[in-house]
Amino acid sequence: TIGATYTGLVSGDAVTVNGTVSALTLVDSDSIKLGGASVTNGLLVTASGTITQSGVLTADSATLNAGGTTLGTNDITLSNASNDFNSVDVTNRGNVTLVDLDDLSLGAANIGGLYDVAATSIAVTGAVTAADVNFDASSGTGSITESGSGTLGVTGTATFKVSGTDTITLGATG
Asked: pTM of the prediction?
């Protein structure tokens, strides 16, 4: 368990943050389970194994890496419906599941398997490549877009879901 003033490096299997921290970097030589955290500036999680959670995660920005420098089979599963990320970057993973309670920006991502994202609105703002994607923005009045320099490259199946008159806009306009 980490106190509210901790902003350093942690190595261990289960990590819970008490209170809110400004920035947090977690590095583990195997899998890591996030028990819950509120991070105002940046959350960086690197694990040689999987990254999972047992509590709510809130972070202005998050960078997630599960498995080193090559695409592999290690998964990232952050599926608590109360998670709240503003933006997420993901590198070198097998399958990635992200659930966010409102709008989510997807920065750079390199996913070897399925990139499964559910949020009120999903904006691809970085270079995203994945074998398959399942983007679901149907939980409210949201959309799925590529914006700014965001690009989405999918080598397999792409599934997009919105509700009502919400929009899907692909093809970054700069």
From this structure: 0.89
